[in-house]
């Protein structure tokens, strides 16, 4: 990309902010050197990496932790150099960070393929971490346990140091008056005492130093010279042993230096991707939809054969785009979404109205997207992948208004025109300014025509009315403007596509108090058609603003309605689940009643056979019982949305419906928006439309009658039974004896209440309780047979026992 353009669009400031999210120097260097790519595939891959990083940061606090740029240390180790303790600790913390990242991404290859691939390239420790931990403390001190020899040397040093200090302490006590102060200090690595100068020679000693005033001599008494020598020799041996140990571990680092350096590069790349994700989150950015560039053919042109767009399948579509360097809480978003086929946008409007910021916003977002950075736009915004971006932007008010201004702009434009093609984005601010307005407008129009012929995407900001007309009358070019609030005399910074900007000079002058006579005189100098056009533009802008406000209101209302609809669906689903659960419980109780009724019928048949009585009445009861049993065996299905009366199924007065909550049939007598009045017999009730089901309800009514009849007839043939203890007993958590006692009491109640079968829950566990239960059931007076529960009943954790007939 063009370096001047990068600076003009303030791209380096973006990189500075990006670098601030990096955790170590290697990734910071990558951030500062990051450039937009002209490769569509690479740009897409970069954006996908950032998206993956944002996704993983949302669920996992991943980071490189205490990593460092260890490449210089690895190079030194590779050249047989000895690393100091701090360098080794940096290598250790870096390898630990690599290990943690690899561990985090190891099992998430499918979810984060790009990040996982980078993590795979991170270096293994190869025992380096353990080796460094073995010899160094967290403060970088070589441990006594680093080697047997070092440990022995340090013990000897401790003993020698004790002897030396003891001998010097005697001098402090015996010669206290001769000393400047009673302390032991060091000079040139040897232990000395501070002797007052006037007592020089009173103690036989070697003088090592003196104070600046000459009043104190730092002396080593001759009797401790040998002890100091011994101490010094041991310290030198300790130093050599420490160096040998460090050299040994450094050699291990040197063996893997290439892998370590390559790993650090991948770690830096991973940290850069995470930095992009963090920056995007703080920027409240979204991933843009990146499209491949335009395909081009050629057409005949008066100036020769020129390229022509054959398939303009990609265009700029930025919704609620914000300048990334302006506070997101104060910046005014803009929409840049021209119609397909648009190749140039001409922006007009008042000074300080935001034209330059709008141009920079588009250019900067393009550069960010092609660098793999998510951009501050609404989700779904789209950008082409440009092969080059060029910009000529200068602050006209901050430079001298002279020929030099025009020359500078033209020189830069000439340079840009030499390199552009149909894959370029070209941005010109105040095109043709700095010279005679008539000539400047002509040059601007000619340059814009040339840019259209090359097929480049162009954004131009101008004050020239001639370019407004050019944009209006030329295919592929659209006008745009920045609004200005006449009441406050301030720009609104809102970009409007399709309408040219107005200068508003007369209105501003009038608001500021210019005499009305001068205003009227100025109007006579302006073409009446221009005044009428300005009035029409103003009316159109007001109408568009009103429409935009209404659209925003409708959008908010739609969002609110969607939320309410979603909440209602959740509530209805919950109600439906509760309904199914209630019906399922009722059905289970019905199955129990049917089983009891069948047992009573069987008992009655047996008694009637013995009495040689006819069984015709019994057969009638059995048939009705089978019908009831078939109904209770039907699964509880989720209620279909189509069976209820919704807003799209209008009821009519007098129509027969079934009120599902009451399971009763009635006739609609009144209708409301969300409910209806239904007459059921002599009673009128209000019911929601969703609770009403079209149909006669005959099947439900008949079934109810059958159930009532069966219940009445069954009451004739069975005696009152004790209260049922329920269909199951839970023995889990009890000791075997307590569990068997509880089961015995339960079986007795179940037998007396006439239950046909029961479920005994003992759990799986070790199987001890299960064995005890089944042993107790064998030959039990109340139990006919027993078997293991089915898959839906609890499997081997449950025993189902069929009861004897009482």
What is the gist of this entry?
The chain is an alpha/beta fold and 806 residues long.
Describe the protein in words.
- It is a single chain.
- Helix 3 packs across helix 11 (257-283), helix 4 packs across helix 11 and helix 8 (128-135) packs antiparallel against helix 10.
- The chain contains 22 helices and 25 strands.
- Helix 13 links the parallel strand 12 (388-392) and strand 13 (424-429).
- With 806 residues, it is α/β, with parallel strands linked by helices.
- Strands 12-13-14-10-15-16 form a six-stranded mixed β-sheet, sandwiched between helices. Strands 20-19-18-17-21 form a five-stranded antiparallel β-sheet. Strands 1-2-4-3 form a four-stranded antiparallel β-sheet.
- Helices cover 49% and strands 17% of the residues.
- The protein starts with a helix and ends with a strand.
Descriptors:
806 residues, 6-stranded mixed β-sheet, alpha/beta
How do the strands of the widest beta sheet line up side by side? 12-13-14-10-15-16
Number of helices: 22
What's the total number of strands? Answer: 25
Chain-averaged pLDDT: 82
Task: Tell the overall outline.
Answer: flat
Helix content: 40-55%
Largest sheet: 6 strands, mixed
Q: Gyration radius, to the nearest Å?
A: 46 Å
CA distance, first residue to last residue: 95 Å
- Beta percentage is 15-25%
User: Low-confidence segments, ≥5 residues, pLDDT <50?
Assistant: 294-313, 396-403, 696-721
Q: Structural class, from helix and strand content?
A: alpha/beta
């Amino acid at each position: 990309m063009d370096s001047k353009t990068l600076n003009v669009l303030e791209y380096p400031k973006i990189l500075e902010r990006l670098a601030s999210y990096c955790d170590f120097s290697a990734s910071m260097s990558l951030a500062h050197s990051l450039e937009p790519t002209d490769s569509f595939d690479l740009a897409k891959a970069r954006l996908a990496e950032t998206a993956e990083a944002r996704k993983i940061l949302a669920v996992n606090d991943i980071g490189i932790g205490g990593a460092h740029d260890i490449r210089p240390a690895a190079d030194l180790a590779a050249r047989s150099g000895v690393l100091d303790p701090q360098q080794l600790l940096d290598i250790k913390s870096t390898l630990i960070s690599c290990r943690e990242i690899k561990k985090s991404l190891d099992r998430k290859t499918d979810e984060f393929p790009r990040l996982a691939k980078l993590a795979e390239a991170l270096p293994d420790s190869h025992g380096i971490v353990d080796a460094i931990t073995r010899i160094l403390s967290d403060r970088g001190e070589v441990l006594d346990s680093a080697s047997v020899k070092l440990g022995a040397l340090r013990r000897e040093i401790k003993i020698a140091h004790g002897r030396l200090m003891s001998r010097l302490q005697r001098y402090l006590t015996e010669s206290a008056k001769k000393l400047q102060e009673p302390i032991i200090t060091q000079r040139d690595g040897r232990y000395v005492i501070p002797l007052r100068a006037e007592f020089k020679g009173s103690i036989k000693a070697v003088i090592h130093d003196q104070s600046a005033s000459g009043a104190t001599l730092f002396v080593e008494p001759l009797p401790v010279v040998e002890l100091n020598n011994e101490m010094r020799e041991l310290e030198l041996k300790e130093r050599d042993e420490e160096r040998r140990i460090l050299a040994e571990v450094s050699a291990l680092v040197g063996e893997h230096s290439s892998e370590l350096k390559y790993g650090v590069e991948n770690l830096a790349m991973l940290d850069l991707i995470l930095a992009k994700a963090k920056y995007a989150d703080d920027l409240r950015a979204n991933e843009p939809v990146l499209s491949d560039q335009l395909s081009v053919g050629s057409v005949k042109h008066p100036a020769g054969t020129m390229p022509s767009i054959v398939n303009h399948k990609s265009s700029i579509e930025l919704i609620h785009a914000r300048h990334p360097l302006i506070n997101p809480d104060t910046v005014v978003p803009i929409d840049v979404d021209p119609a397909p086929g648009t190749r140039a946008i001409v922006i007009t409007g008042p000074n300080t109205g935001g034209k330059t910021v709008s141009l920079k916003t588009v250019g900067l977002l393009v550069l960010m997207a092609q660098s793999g950075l998510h951009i501050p736009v609404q989700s779904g915004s789209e950008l082409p992948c440009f092969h080059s971006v060029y910009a000529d932007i200068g602050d006209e008010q901050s430079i001298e208004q002279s020929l030099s201004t025009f020359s500078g702009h033209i020189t830069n434009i000439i340079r840009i025109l030499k390199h552009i093609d149909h894959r370029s984005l070209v941005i010109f601010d105040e095109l043709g300014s700095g010279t005679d307005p008539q000539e400047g407008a002509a040059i601007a129009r000619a340059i814009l025509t040339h840019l259209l012929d090359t097929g480049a995407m162009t954004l131009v900001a101008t004050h020239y009315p001639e370019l407004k007309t050019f944009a209006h009358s030329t295919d592929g070019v659209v006008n745009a403007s920045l609004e200005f609030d006449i009441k406050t005399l301030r720009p609104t910074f809102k970009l409007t596509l399709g309408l040219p900007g107005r200068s508003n000079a007369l209105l501003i002058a009038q608001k500021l108090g210019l005499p009305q006579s001068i205003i009227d005189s100025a109007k006579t100098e302006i073409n009446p058609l221009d005044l009428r056009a300005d009035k029409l533009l103003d009316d159109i802008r007001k109408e568009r603003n009103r429409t935009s406000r209404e659209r925003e209101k409708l959008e908010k209302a739609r969002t609110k309605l969607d939320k309410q609809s979603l909440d209602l669906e959740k509530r209805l689903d919950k109600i439906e689940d509760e309904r199914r659960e209630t019906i399922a419980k009722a059905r289970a109780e019905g199955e129990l009643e049917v089983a009891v009724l069948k047992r009573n019928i069987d008992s009655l048949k047996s008694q009637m056979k013995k009495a040689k009585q006819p069984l015709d009445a019994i057969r009638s009861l059995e048939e009705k019982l089978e019908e009831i049993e078939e109904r209770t065996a039907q699964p509880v299905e989720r209620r279909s949305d189509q069976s209820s009366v919704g807003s799209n199924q209008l009821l009519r007065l007098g129509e027969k419906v079934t009120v599902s909550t009451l399971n009763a049939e009635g006739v609609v007598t009144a209708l409301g928006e969300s409910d209806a009045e239904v007459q059921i017999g002599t009673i009128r009730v209000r019911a929601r439309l969703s609770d009403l089901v079209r149909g006669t309800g005959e099947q439900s009514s008949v079934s109810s009658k059958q159930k009532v009849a069966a219940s009445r007839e069954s009451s004739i043939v069975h005696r009152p039974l004790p209260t049922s203890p329920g269909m199951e007993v839970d023995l889990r958590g009890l000791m075997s004896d307590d569990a068997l006692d509880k089961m015995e009491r339960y079986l007795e109640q179940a037998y007396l209440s006439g239950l046909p079968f029961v479920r005994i829950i003992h759990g799986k566990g070790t199987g001890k309780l299960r064995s005890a239960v089944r042993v107790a059931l064998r030959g039990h007076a109340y139990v006919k047979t027993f078997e293991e529960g089915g898959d839906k009943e609890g499997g081997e954790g449950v025993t189902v026992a069929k009861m004897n007939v009482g």
